[in-house]
């Protein structure tokens, strides 16, 4: 096999220097999890002492991978290095030497054999040192324990009822934990999970900072100032999690957990005692929610305290094996946090919240062209100009609620004469932005709250689509049951509109 004439001409236009490069295919140290060892192609500039190309490769890679890595090192080196051809390359394998000689002969690059490659061996030694000194992975039994409680919590879906300002005290008095103060993420259809704060002060300080006039560039510092354990769910597309999935039961792709501490930063590994405490707290939270779901739906300030007996599975080494846990609501703290958020969310614009019912699922994302095409003949209200939809799909904002409420949304929009635009209202210092829709009769109606990162991602997609987007109204979600992904017949409307700024929206 040889390089094409075009490739040879292109590479020969680059200056050739008398540097000697070292190339090798190596297997990195085996991970402790028992997975197969990762493989890498390395090209080092021995004269300059720099790594010009580090590429992962499949276990079955051949000599071709070495050539591909070399071409990248010549034309597109990693780091601020010039495009150059070396005068000579060294390899430590005779077969590689003979192969490269044939391929590189027209590039006037000498290929020599060397029993040792000092630069590559030095880099490999650094990899080994890092591997030996890195924090050990959690034993598999604890990983399985966390996965099992994550599955149970996901099925219970407390975020359908509990909002993020509702705090529950979980009293353990075990494994160095007195009490956790739990908040649930996911009511607004965004990131789902649970935060277990180690102190009320940490929770208060973080909420105060997030709701104050904190600049966006300071938010990372605020985030890392928390003192908590987190358990969050990774979803394939967090901004449109269930719209185009075929499965009837929405499910998460993976679960992430770890610790945040002001002095330690974020740590993605928990030690066994932290896992035991987290498992026990989440199991107690799940049982508390299942037993008191009705009360929490009726009154978010209900004063409830209950004891649960949580047993660690026999497969897990633990002392003690059974823990008595007390879970209690904290109505006074809930009221304080809600007032803190409400005070910061005052808006001078006349934005009403009559359109989207409580407990609706709100999400943003991009709908593929093929899915839009399948909806044209199914959806009662479909106003998308398919000729103008680009290949990447159409950015959409979706409201999913019950069949009756979805019908009421459409009646509301039709009475108002339709929609005329979407925008986001930035509230100074708040960690979220308000999604607002302008109706044809001049009303500004609140759709939902969205994180800054979500807004910027969706805005960029709209910009690349000439600011065109759509509002989707769908049924299939209820307050008392797990939401299911909407299928074609569940979608009542796909209404094309334009993303604009809030000032323009007010003038529509």
Description:
The structure is a single chain. The protein contains 13 helices and 22 strands. Helix 5 packs parallel to helix 8. The protein is an alpha+beta fold. Helix content is 32%, strand content 30%. It folds into three domains: 5-133, Nucleotidyltransferase, domain 5; 140-342, no CATH class; 347-507, no CATH class. The strands form four sheets. The chain has an eight-stranded antiparallel β-sheet. The chain has a five-stranded mixed β-sheet with strand order 3-2-1-4-5, sandwiched between helices. The chain has a five-stranded mixed β-sheet with strand order 15-17-21-22-16.
Features:
Nucleotidyltransferase, domain 5; 3 domains; alpha+beta; 5-stranded mixed sheet; 32% helix; globular; 30% strand; 22 strands
End-to-end distance: 64 Å
Query: Could you describe the largest sheet, including whether it forms a barrel?
Result: 8 strands, antiparallel
* Integer-rounded radius of gyration: 29 Å
Number of strands: 22
Outline = globular
Q: Enumerate how many helices there are, as a single number.
A: 13
Q: How many structural domains can be distinguished in the coordinates?
A: 3
| Class inferred from helices and paired strands | alpha+beta
Low-pLDDT sequence parts: 31-36, 237-249, 343-348
Strand line-up across the major sheet: 11-10-9-8-7-6-13-12
Strand content: 25-35%
Average pLDDT rating: 81
Helix % is 25-40%
């Amino acid at each position: 096999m040889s390089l094409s004439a075009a490739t040879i001409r292109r590479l020969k236009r680059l200056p050739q220097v008398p540097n000697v490069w070292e190339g090798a295919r190596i297997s990195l140290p085996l991970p402790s999890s028992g997975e197969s060892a990762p493989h890498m192609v390395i090209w080092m500039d021995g004269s300059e002492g720099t790594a010009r190309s580090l590429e992962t490769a499949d276990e079955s890679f051949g000599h071709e991978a070495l050539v591909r890595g070399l071409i990248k090192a010549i034309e597109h080196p990693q780091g601020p290095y010039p495009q150059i051809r070396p005068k000579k390359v060294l390899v430590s394998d005779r077969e590689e030497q003979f192969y490269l000689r044939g391929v590189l002969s027209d590039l006037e690059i000498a290929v020599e054999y060397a029993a040792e490659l000092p630069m590559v061996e030095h880099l490999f030694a650094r990899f080994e040192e890092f591997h030996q000194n890195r924090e050990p992975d959690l034993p598999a039994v604890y990983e399985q324990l966390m996965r099992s409680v994550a599955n149970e919590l996901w099925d219970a879906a407390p975020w359908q009822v509990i909002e993020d300002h509702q705090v529950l005290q979980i009293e353990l008095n075990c494994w160095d934990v007195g009490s956790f103060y739990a908040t649930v993420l996911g009511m607004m259809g965004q990131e789902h999970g649970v935060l277990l704060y180690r102190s009320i002060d940490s929770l208060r300080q973080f909420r105060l900072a997030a709701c104050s006039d904190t600049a966006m560039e300071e938010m990372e510092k605020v985030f890392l100032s928390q003192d908590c354990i987190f358990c969050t769910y990774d979803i394939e597309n967090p901004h449109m999690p269930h719209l185009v999935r075929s499965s009837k039961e929405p499910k998460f792709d993976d679960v992430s957990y770890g610790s945040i501490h002001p002095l330690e930063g974020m740590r993605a590994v928990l030690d066994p005692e932290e896992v035991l405490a987290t498992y026990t707290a989440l199991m107690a939270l799940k049982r508390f929610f299942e037993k008191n779901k009705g009360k929490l739906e009726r009154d978010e300030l209900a004063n409830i305290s209950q004891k649960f007996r949580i047993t660690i599975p026999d497969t897990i080494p633990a002392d003690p094996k059974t823990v008595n846990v007390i879970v209690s609501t904290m109505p006074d703290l809930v009221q304080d946090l809600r007032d803190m958020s409400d005070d910061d969310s005052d808006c001078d614009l006349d934005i009403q919240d009559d359109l989207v019912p409580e407990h609706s699922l709100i999400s943003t994302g991009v709908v593929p062209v093929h899915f839009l095409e399948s909806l044209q003949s199914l959806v009662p209200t479909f106003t998308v100009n398919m000729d103008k939809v680009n290949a990447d799909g159409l950015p959409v904002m979706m409201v999913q609620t019950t069949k009756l409420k979805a019908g009421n949304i459409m009646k509301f929009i039709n009475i108002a004469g339709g929609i005329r635009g979407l925008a986001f209202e930035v509230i100074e210092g708040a960690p979220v932005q308000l999604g607002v829709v302008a109706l044809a009769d001049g009303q500004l109606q609140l759709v939902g709250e969205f994180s800054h990162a979500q807004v910027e991602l969706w805005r960029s997609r709209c910009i690349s689509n000439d600011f065109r987007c759509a509002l989707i109204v769908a049924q299939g979600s209820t307050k008392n049951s797990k939401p299911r992904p909407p299928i074609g017949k569940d979608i009542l409307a796909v209404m094309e509109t334009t993303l604009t700024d809030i000032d323009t929206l007010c003038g529509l």
